[in-house]
Every structure is written in structure tokens, then in C-alpha cells.
Amino acid sequence: MRERSWLSWVVAVATSVGLFGCVDGAGGGPQGGQIGGVHGAEGGCDEEKEDIGADDASPLGFSARAALTAISGERSVPLTWAKGGSTTATVSVGELVAARFVRSTVAEAEGDSNGAEPALAVDCSDHLQIDVPLAFSTEDGAFDESFAVTLRVPRVDAASFFYKIDLSALQGSYEVTEVDPAEFKAVTVYLSGALSSGAVSGTISGVAESHPTGSGPDGSVSAQQFGVAQF
Q1: pLDDT tens readout for residues 31-56
Q2: Which of 16, 97, 138, 214 is the most buried (most CB within 10 A)?
Q3: Global pTM?
Q4: Could you tell me which of 82, 225, 72 has the C-alpha nearest to residue 142?
Q5: d(CA 4, CA 62)
Q6: Bridge partners (DSSP) listed for residue 4
């Protein structure tokens, strides 16, 4: 199955917090809430996906199960809130649900036949996608969440994820106070993370979209990025 991934401005903003990779335009995986990747309005990644079994040796030289074994389990690390204070964050990766091998190449920009590089750097390397349940919590109770994510796995001991948090369905006590939601059209918060065989790190960040100004060709919408936490 061949797909092309494209950029939304929200995802472009998210690149500043260290995300990498491409996902399909539908958001990747079965979880719906997840979006992710780095791809530009002037180019993106052409991706061809192939379902693979958990123990199948992929063209990358390892199986989905081998990759998940290296990064699965529970990890706890210090978390620092952007507004001050700290706590402990715990990330737990569950059992494999499904896996795909993704062959990825840089897409030629629409209407561009001269082979120019995209304006925004992209990582269109081959990788595995592994669907798993993931639990994320903080010791202070701000987050106590469980959701399905699609891990992007370029090598056997490394994976990343990027998840759009449903603020209306939070089990923890977190509320957006970094900006005043009443002053914006929409406020979105994202959880991103990187997993290795012995560590986890990540960020919680947000984007506040302003109300449109003007109309028609002269109308515009701006966005403000804000940090929530780092771990």
C-alpha cells in the first residue's frame, strides 16, 4: 500500500521539540488521535507499507518482536514542568498489536519536476511501524493515561512516538494553564517520546490557534506554541 504523507502546520511546529519521521496523512495506526512526523508543504515522504508478522525478519534485519523486546516494559524518569516544579513520569509500553514495514522515500513536490529538495528537512528512511498500548502517568497525578500509539522504529533499539492528547478524556488532573484557552480558537496538546533499550525521554507541548482575522484572501490565522513539560 503506497501513501504520501503531507505537512499540517501543527506538525511543523512540533518539529521544534525533537520529533522525527513521517506518518501517513490519516495519522497512522488504529488510534486515531495520533499524528506525527516531519514533512513539508513543498514535499513529504512517499511510503509503501507492508504488513508483517511479529517474528518475520524485516528488510531492516530485525523483527518487530525483537525491536519491541528491546524497548518494552516500564521506565520512570524525572519530569520538569515548564511553569516550575517537578515530579516523576512513568512510561510503559505494552504488547505488540500489529506491525508494518515501511519503505519511505522523499516525495517530489507537487508540480515540481526539477528534483529540488523539500524546503523542510525530512527523515524518509525505511522503518517499522509497531502498534502498541502505551501508559503514561506522573507521580503528582497530572497524567494517568492509557492509549494506543504507533511506534516508529528505524532500528532495533530505538523508537519514537507522537500523540495528540484528547484533553476532554484525561484521567489525570492536568488542565491547560500555560495559555488561556478562552483567548484562542483551539488549543492542542501533544505527547512525544523517544525510547531506547535503557531509557525514555520526551516532551509535552502545545499549540494555541488564534481566532481568524480578516476574511477571504486577506484572512489569516496564527498559532502560539507553548511548553508543558520535559522528561
Answers
A1: 333 333 333 333 488 889 999 999 99
A2: 138
A3: 0.77
A4: 82
A5: 25
A6: 46
